[in-house]
Design brief:
The protein is mainly beta and about 1000 residues long. Strands 44, 45, 46, 47, 48, 49, 50, 51, 52, 53, 54, 55, 56 and 57 form a 14-stranded antiparallel β-sheet that branches. An eight-stranded parallel β-sheet has the order 31-30-29-28-27-34-33-32. The structure holds 1-methylethyl 1-thio-beta-D-galactopyranoside. 1-methylethyl 1-thio-beta-D-galactopyranoside binds next to strand 33.
Length: about 1000
């Protein structure tokens, strides 16, 4: 264990030193050992300093020092105010830009430092032991008592130090963590800078001869498991003194010899069969050490542009997952990890890219156990150099080679035995350069059983798969057909043509959106070369804090950062607290393991399995016909399980086909889990398809049928402001702010220009150039008759002649008060823009409490836009207005109910439509939502704002990627809408 006697550093080196840490032990696999282990997590003494001048002297804490910090955690988190009364630094959020001058390799002087210390006492101190840090974010210098032990670099990688002969009965361990160092230049991931001891710390006793490393090669070949194990021990051991065994099968093996295990089952994300490898060492005195490692049998290969696992092609239906916790920072507790991976399984996600660094080792154990395909990514990103033309980019600078290769080696050494990992990734957004080649070579030397990934290498010189981010569906389709533009270099071009294509990031889930998931998935399903992709991103990085007793979520800029990237870090399928957002429900539908479609006559359901390794026998098929609150019939459908990627057409029971002829009824056919698994409950619906009866009123409430209200003098039902033509009263309901709206509170997607849209302004900017956010209405005429009123208005905006003419035709009918709205554009709507409007609708305010109930028939329970809402289903729903709100961290357009046929509002107002409309009911006006920066700043409200839209733009994914797809854009056009207001409560 005296591995470090040479080159041992006696004092910490300057922070600009490029070396990958000093006095560290060689990297090795994560294993469970029976050697004594002292977990050092818990409360440590702590102090924070804005900078430290003499970095070579160990900090000395005053005896009475009372500040205690929990380890692990990022020390800058506001939640730690509950532990630390003194300042402890603040989080800083930057995406691409560095939060300090690009002056590589120098960190700035302003460099917050967390000094940690704790006592470590032994009743019987071991002679040989290692000190292991699973991760320290930033750069750390470590002292054991008065001895400088070494330093760490590589924030999300483990570091180990030799404690041989240093252990006393009572000891002090001191760790000084610097926020920035040379290493910061290669850790420029899009996330908060969150220094601290972020993962577990332990001391592990080393037996006389210890098992330092185990490498398991366990391919699945010709239908059986093959196994080859190599073991590194710290000293010489006779072969006979090393026992290797697979516990479940009782197979004994010799190190360095291939063995077949015919009875073994393969590992896959769909059937994660794991085995336990046990390695024991002994000598004449008896047993020395026993380690255990869970592993699985599986083979990854690329064949004919497809990615194959165990001989079968696979498709990634994946997410990018960062490590973030709203209270602890980069530290994610195990129960959070387990719950979030279970949630992914429940939402049909089968793959994780560990963006953009190796995750907590616990996460990988869980991925092995629950079953995910994982791309393990190296802790490397140098994106900020892109802002200076990639000048001095570490990726292409030989001085950095050792540091970068070290990172790659440490990742692979730590994680090589995980069956879930099917690719290694060199990093993210690190430009191009020679060091990528050195990293690739170093990885292949340790493990050549997995393909290499790196998106930055578009010529695919160093990698085995072609990867892109945010490419358009059209481009992806072209690649699927093998019609991509050629590379100039012929050899590289030929190579890349043979490669599978993956979208390592797509569908940026920021705010309301992403729109267009279905189109991507359809492309993946169609072309074998497209092996799927990874949504950006699983998780929002909100930081929770308390403000005057209120629970708030912070984003970039909220900590007074001098440069920051705002809420660009709030772009997940789940909130930082792992609450699912609507987009997760939509994704679950798009990622369904089986595609289901009912035929026109509702006599058959067509099913195509997306599973690659298992059949569908774990899923049962069901039907149900519902009308209002009544189940007219239901049952289970027996069907032959579908094999991997198989299709079948299954007849529906005659009863189902006949019941769906009942007026106002909905047929639902779905697949659900038969048994509970570790992650998914029994009876969990994984795929759903529906059909509506051809006939029916589909009113929101059964009692609220049309035609019950006698025609009346229209003046009793409607009051119109004679000066503006706006409605001020509907029956007994006072109405405020009645207006035509073409606008919405810009979403994060609306605020940015879609990739490939050239010079066209972002949607929100276009809308404001056209004045949609500040409409001015002019009354043209009011034509009143006893049973009808026709109001004509022209709606435009200051400084433009682009306007719409509106005809509001009111009629007292048997069914209630009918409004037909016709909107006709006039003037100059810029012809060069493919889209002009956010929506075409009526907006008004009711004096009703948002706590009151809204009932509707339409899609639900969650919202939808023309290009989202895949997870919303037909049905009769009710909810309080308050509960309907999607609480996006930055308020924006959200919560629109899609394809609504009828609604019953609080009190007496019911709405019936002769077509499907969008209905948005919120406690705030659109203007208020648009003007508010944080959710907690939305004011309390006792009113309800209603928007009925007859046409709506999609939401797209322009926050990062393509904008709204052509089919979902809304150019200026004539729109007609019809709604019947029924004002009597039945
Ligand atoms: C891409 C990054 O890889 C990812 O980390 C994240 O920043 C994402 O963008 C946006 O949220 S890089 C970008 C230039 C496409």
């Amino acid at each position: 264990t005296k591995a470090m006697t040479t080159n041992r550093k006696l004092v910490p080196q300057p922070l600009e030193n490029l070396d990958p840490g000093w006095n560290t032990l060689p990297a090795r696999a994560t294993m469970n050992s029976d050697a004594s282990k002292w977990e050092l997590n818990g409360m440590w003494r702590f102090r924070w300093l804005p900078k430290v001048l003499d970095k070579t002297i160990a900090p000395v804490f005053a005896d009475n020092h009372s500040e205690l910090i929990p380890v692990p955690a990022s020390f800058v988190m506001p939640h730690l105010d509950n532990f630390l009364k003194e300042p402890h630094g603040k989080p800083v959020y930057t995406n691409v830009q560095f939060p300090f001058p690009v002056d590589s390799p120098y960190p700035p002087d302003e460099n917050g430092v967390g000094e940690y210390q704790r006592d470590v006492d032994f009743s019987n101190a071991p002679a040989h032991a290692h000190l292991r840090f699973e991760g320290i974010e930033g750069a750390a210098d470590i002292w054991w008592n008065d001895t400088y032990l070494g330093s760490t670099r590589g924030s999300r990688l483990p570091s180990e130090f030799d404690l041989t002969d240093l252990l006393l009965q009572s000891n002090t361990l001191t760790v000084r963590v610097f926020t920035f160092s040379a290493a910061s230049y290669v850790e420029d991931q899009d996330e908060w800078w969150l220094p601290g001891i972020i993962r577990d710390v332990a001391i592990i006793e080393q037996p006389k001869v210890s098992i330092s490393d185990v490498s398991i090669h366990s391919p699945w070949q010709d239908g059986q498991g093959r196994l080859f194990v190599s073991v590194v021990t710290s000293g010489q051991l006779e072969k006979a003194n090393l026992k290797i065994r697979v516990l479940e099968t009782g197979t004994d093996l010799e190190p360095g010899v291939w063995t077949s295990i015919p009875e073994a089952k393969a590992w896959s994300a769909e059937a994660p069969n794991r085995y336990t490898l046990q390695v024991r060492s002994q000598d004449s005195t008896g047993p020395l050490e026993t380690v255990e490692i869970k592993f699985g049998f599986r083979t990854v290969e690329i064949r004919d542009t497809e990615l194959m696992v165990n001989g079968k092609p696979i498709q990634f239906r994946g997410v990018n997952r960062h490590e973030h916790h709203p209270l602890w920072g980069r530290t994610v507790p195990e129960q959070t990890l387990r719950a979030e991976l279970a949630l992914m399984k429940q939402c049909n996600i089968n793959a994780i890219r560990t963006s953009h660094y190796p995750p907590s080792p616990v996460m990988l154990d869980l991925a092995d156990e629950l079953g995910f395909w994982v791309i393990d990514e190296c802790d490397l990103e140098t994106h900020g150099f892109g802002m200076v033309d990639w000048l001095n980019n570490p990726t292409d600078d030989p001085n950095w080679e050792a540091a970068l290769v070290d990172r790659a080696q440490r990742m692979v050494q730590r994680d090589k035995n995980h069956p879930s990992i099917v690719m290694w990734s060199l990093g993210n957004e690190a430009g191009v350069g020679v060091n990528l080649g050195a990293m690739a070579k170093a990885i292949k030397a340790i493990d050549d059983s997995r393909p290499l990934h790196y998106e930055g290498d578009q010529s695919c010189q160093y990698v085995d798969v072609w990867s892109m981010m945010y490419a358009s569906v059209d481009f992806v389709e072209a690649v699927g057909l093998g019609q991509e533009p050629a590379l100039e270099d012929l050899a590289l071009e030929t190579r890349r043509r043979e490669m599978p294509f993956v979208l390592c990031e797509y569908a940026h889930a920021m705010g309301t959106g992403p729109g267009g998931l279905t189109e991507y998935q359809n492309a993946f399903d169609k072309h074998p070369r497209l092996i799927g992709g990874f949504i950006w991103e699983w998780l929002e990085h909100g930081i929770y804090a308390e403000q005057q007793g209120q629970h708030i979520t912070n984003y970039g800029g909220d900590f007074g950062e001098s440069v920051h990237d705002g809420n660009f870090v709030i772009d997940g399928l789940v909130s930082a607290g792992r609450e699912p957002r609507t987009q997760l429900r939509d994704l679950a539908a798009v990622f369904a393991p089986v595609i289901m479609r009912l035929d026109e006559s509702a006599t058959r359901v067509e099913m195509t399995s997306r599973l690659d390794h298992t059949d569908t026998s774990a899923l049962s098929l069901h039907w149900e016909v519902v009308s209002f609150d009544q189940i007219l019939g239901s049952g289970q459908i027996s069907y032959p399980p579908l094999g991997p990627r198989q299709a079948a057409s299954v007849p529906l029971p005659a009863e189902a086909s006949s019941l769906i002829r009942t007026e106002s009824s909905v047929l639902t056919v779905w697949l659900e889990t038969i048994e509970e698994t570790q992650s998914v409950p029994k009876g969990w619906r994984v795929a759903t398809t529906q059909q509506l009866s051809k006939a029916g009123s589909f009113s929101a409430l059964k009692t609220n049928t049309q035609g019950t209200q006698p025609a009346a003098d229209i003046a009793q039902l409607l009051e119109i402001d004679p000066e503006t033509g706006a409605v001020v009263r509907l029956a007994r309901e006072p109405v405020d702010n009645w207006a035509l709206t073409l606008w919405r509170a810009p979403t994060d997607n609306d605020l940015r220009v879609g990739w490939g849209e050239g010079d066209s302004p972002a949607a929100a900017e276009r809308w404001s150039m056209l004045g949609l956010d500040r409409p001015m209405s002019r009354l043209i005429s009011i034509d009143s008759k006893p049973a009808s009123i026709v109001v004509k208005t022209r709606v435009g905006a200051a400084a433009t002649d682009a306007a719409v003419d509106c005809t509001w035709s009111w009629e007292a009918q048997e069914a209630g008060l009918a409004l037909t709205l016709e909107v006709v554009p006039r003037g100059s709507w810029p012809a060069e823009w493919s889209s002009h409007w956010a929506r075409v609708g009526i907006e008004f305010t009711l004096n009703s409490n948002p706590a009151s109930t809204l009932s509707w028939f339409g899609k639900g329970p969650g919202p939808g836009y023309p290009d989202t809402g895949q997870g919303a289903n037909w049905g009769w729903y009710s909810s309080s207005v308050t509960d309907l709100q999607e609480r996006t961290v930055r308020p924006q357009e959200s919560s629109r109910l899609a394809q609504v046929r009828s609604a019953q509002m609080a009190g007496s107002l019911s709405l019936n439509f002769d077509a499907e409309v969008g209905l948005t009911v919120r406690p705030w006006s659109t203007q208020t939502v648009a003007a508010t920066t944080h959710d907690h700043l939305l004011p309390p409200s006792s009113q309800t704002n209603v928007v009925i839209d007859f046409a709506s733009s999609g939401v797209g994914t322009a926050a990062c990627g393509p904008g709204v797809l052509p089919a979902y854009r809304l150019p200026a056009q004539a729109v007609r809408g019809h709604v019947v207001f029924n004002t009597e409560k039945k």
